[in-house]
Design a protein that fits this description.
Layout (H helix, E strand, L loop, with lengths): L3 H9 L5 H14 L8 H11 L4 H13 L6 H6 L6 H10 L7 H7 L5 H13 L1 H4 L1 H8 L2 H8 L7 H14 L10 H20 L4 H18 L15 H13 L7
Length: 259
């Protein structure tokens, strides 16, 4: 819906409270489903906001674009990897999950110098797996080791990275009874799951590391067609109901709440 309150916010984006207005528009899209995605005036102002010299305004406009699921032209995407503010890149990288035609941009963001951006690029690539197919696995295989390194550090679990890896593993898990995925996908799943299993064995006290390892081990075993990694993933230390709950939570809880 597009009530007068939302239109007032759109008008305010060209004034001194532009950042606050863009943030409020983003919140409206997230919480109330109030969409402006088909509003030409909104889209024109949004592009201006994204080009703003004020970092705070551009960041808030990127948040609004993400939450409103805005359709942005190619020219915007080509510039995203060069945007100086990491949080702006994070918002736009999340929106890329709706853009299967921007593979070249996703590929650059998978190598972003900020690990938070890279994790969001991994997550968006996983969400695009139904559209991209093997191309998604090929993209992710280039950063497979980086994903695993981000999942567990010396002090505990990186939940955002685990969310991303679980999304990847679930995206490529073959449905029961269907043919196994292509070789590139199988190799990626095996490599990632094997590394995760190794991490979980080294960090037996970190339950979420075991959860990520077991979810991905199950996908890898399904892909290769026989049980190999699941017995090694540490599932014996994680109750079955706990495993299901943790996997669910890691898939659904917004990563921003875990940073």
């Amino acid at each position: 819906s597009r009530g007068p309150g939302l239109q007032t916010l759109v008008q305010a984006t060209s004034g001194p409270l532009a950042a606050e207005a863009w943030t409020a528009i983003g919140v409206a899209g997230r919480r109330r489903g109030a969409t402006l995605a088909q509003d030409d005036r909104f889209l024109a102002l949004l592009l201006a906001g994204l080009r703003s010299d004020e970092e705070e305004v551009a960041r808030a406009a990127a948040y609004a674009a993400f939450r409103q699921e805005a359709w942005l032209p190619d020219g915007v995407w080509q510039n995203v990897p060069a945007v100086a503010d990491p949080q702006t890149r994070i918002h736009l990288t999340r929106l890329l999950a709706r853009y299967p035609d921007q593979i070249a941009v996703i590929q650059r963001l998978l190598r972003d110098p900020d690990p938070r951006v890279q994790v969001e690029a991994i997550r968006s690539t996983a969400l695009l797996a139904p559209s991209l197919g093997v191309a998604a696995a090929q993209l992710l295989s280039q950063v497979g080791d980086d994903i695993v390194e981000k999942i567990v550090d010396n002090t505990g679990a990186d939940v955002a990275a685990m969310q991303a890896m679980i999304a990847v593993c679930e995206a490529f898990r073959p449905p029961v009874g269907e043919r196994p995925p292509p070789g590139d996908v199988r190799m990626f799943l095996q490599s990632g799951a094997t590394s995760l299993v190794t991490w979980s064995q080294q960090l037996r006290g970190v339950e979420r590391a075991q959860v990520a390892a077991c979810v991905c081990a199950a996908s890898a075993d399904a892909a290769i067609g026989h049980v190999e990694l699941v017995p090694q993933c540490g599932a014996q230390g994680v109750a079955a109901d706990r495993l299901a709950v943790e996997a669910d939570a890691l898939s659904l809880v917004p990563a921003a709440q875990k940073r």
